[in-house]
Amino acid sequence: MLERGLRTVALLGLAAAMYLASRPVGALDRPASTPRWTANDLADSTAMVLTTALMREIVAAGSDTQPRRVNVELTAVPSPRARAALGAVHGADVSVGWIDRTAATGLAVSATAVAGPSGAVDVRVAGIPSSLPLVLRDAGGTLDSVQTTSVTAWRLASVSPPLRASIGASEASVVTRVPAFTRRVMLMALPGWEAKFVAAALEEAGWHVDGSVRVSPHTTVTLGAPVRLDTARYGVVVLLDSMSVDATAIRRFVQQGGGLVLSGDALRIPALAPISPARATTIRGAVAGALLTDSPQRGLEAWEVVVRRGALVVRSDDSDHGHAEPALVAARLGAGRVVASAYRNSWRWRMEGTDDGAAEHRAWWGNVLALAAGVPAAARDSLADAYPGNAAPYADLVARVGSPVSADPATVRAASALSAFEQLQDRLRAAPGLLFIVIALSLLGEWASRRLRGNR
Amino acid sequence: MSDSMKDAVAVEPFVFATAQYESGDWDSAPMLPANVIDSVARYTSLPVRPQGVSVPLSSEAVFAYPLLFLTGHLPVRFTTREADVLRRYLVRGGLLFVDDHNHDVDGAFHKTVREEIRRVAGPLVPLPNTHELYRSFFVFENGPPTTSHEMNGWGDNLVHEQLDAVLRNGRISVLYSSKDYSSEWSFHPDNKRFLSVDNTKFAVNLVVYALTR
Prior knowledge:
The complex is a heterodimer of chains A (about 450) and B (about 210). Chain A has about 450 residues and is of the alpha/beta class. Chain A has three domains: about 1-105 and about 395-435, no CATH class; about 105-180, Immunoglobulin-like (Sandwich); about 185-375, Rossmann fold. Helix content of chain A is about 30%, strand content about 25%. Chain A has 13 helices and 20 strands. In chain A, strand 12 and strand 13 form a beta hairpin. Chain A is elongated, with a radius of gyration of 33 Å. Chain B has one domain: Domain of unknown function DUF4159 (Rossmann fold). In chain B, about 30% of the residues lie in helices and about 15% in strands. Chain B has helices at about 5-10, 30-45, 80-90, 110-120, 180-185, 200-210; strands at about 15-20, 55, 65-70, 95-100, 125, 165-170, 170-175. The longest helix of chain B has 14 residues, at about 110-120.
């Protein structure tokens, strides 16, 4: 009986050795570690961070081979790059399990251009009804905020891509077609260095500048070839000084889809106060020497402003009082936008700043006008912005790496743990002589037993 | 309205700035700034500071004055620091107006300062007499107005038909004159009443051009 048992053990050991020898090397040479990534590893939401974290886990496993399983706890839906990297890992014989701590729900947005010359866009948002409001916004600011239903729809006259929908922690975005616009700007200003250098910066940024500057009661200097103000001819009106203007025409221009920039002292034009997104109160002095620092805007005088209801603060500056001072504020008016820039005498940024000041001043004004015109200021990140999966990021994550595992500790342990058979394989792989010893001892035991009872 | 707000809505006044350089005689036309300032105030509604300033070309203080006047009789050699500051000044959009006080194309100032300008900003080229500079305020159909000093027996005794310039992005970066406006405009402003035609009108064009283009 004993001899049969020992022989069986020897045969089983031999069979196990043959089985392990028949398995592909890659499938066997996997470390038993189960690395766990937290949301901090994905905080930067870049594939580089993810790859770095993966390599770190491989090195920690003491092998140059890939880990068997990766568990990730996510507190936010990863970026497109991070999702793509997770999907790639998942497809490379690594099981990816993720624990959903995002507080996000499935949310999807779609935008379809309406056939015809209007440029209108049909927008639909699908999501799980929630007590939180559904907020729709584009590059120009918030478009609408409503209580959620299962499907919500809008027809928008114009959209500045990207279009974003959000409910609480859930966000989805889609890139729409850039609306046709004219890179022609009407500059209204008093003669001075600000008008000169703003016109120069805009021309260098690719805008065609028209305008007229009154230099005496009977003499006006003309820039470009100004014509009647309407949205067919101009994309944006820029006002730089407190001066007399045709407020009715400007208001009509904006309501019909044009952009308006009120910069510096133009925030003090009484006739335009009703449509200004911010009200100027007092002057914030320039910080001496700041033009030569990394925060050159602090070296400019600026108006302290009170932001009107519904306006969006696009940029703020840190103040010496410990709070942020709005520097760039935007609001919608009809089909157009009004942008308020608090800085005065921005030309000093260009002339008295660092050697990069001219380029920074040009970029600033290019961005301000793009904001007013509702167009991208620069080429977008094609993957980050235009990636189709952004229309429903949560669904995209599930499609790439599967449904989240339960956050229940027992389930997580189960998901993290290897099966008993896999553990046995790993132990045998870790100690390749163990099988030989078991087989040898079994055969030796059988032989000894037979000798002791006199058989050959 | 608080005092700060009253000040805030006031447009910065134009300040006429003269460049100081280490070689030569940068202050050879001491009456010129006051006369130009008087003309700007007389003919335009531009806010202008009553006194001009003199700014060392080696100082980054010149960046606060986007129009800079430079004149002299003697040879000009910019120091390394002056050349560096001037190069950056022009790249950022400043306008340098240089006038040959000798009105002599064989003179030391003319030869040396043009060489310095070429080294710092590039070669000077003739500015067409149809340029907008000649229409920015007063209209000068025939280009730069002739000065009484061009044929006074001094210098090259030539009437220079054009000004020269270095252009950058379609704008005048350096304007060079052999017409000796330094002599023509260097008199007390009160004496304009004795002139049948004010000979400083072109200075108004220059200032208006600098402020608007």
